[in-house]
Amino acid sequence: MATKTNNTWYYQTFATQACDVTLVGSSDGLHILHLETGAGKKDGFQIEADWIEDVTRFTDVREQVIEYFAGKRVEFDFTTPLKPLGTDFQQSVWHALNQIQTGSTCRYMDIAQQINNPKAVRAVGAAIGRNPIPLIIPCHRVVGADGSLTGFAHGLEMKRMLLNLEGCKVA
Question: Residue 40 is part of a domain; what is its CATH number?
Answer without folding.
Answer: 3.30.160
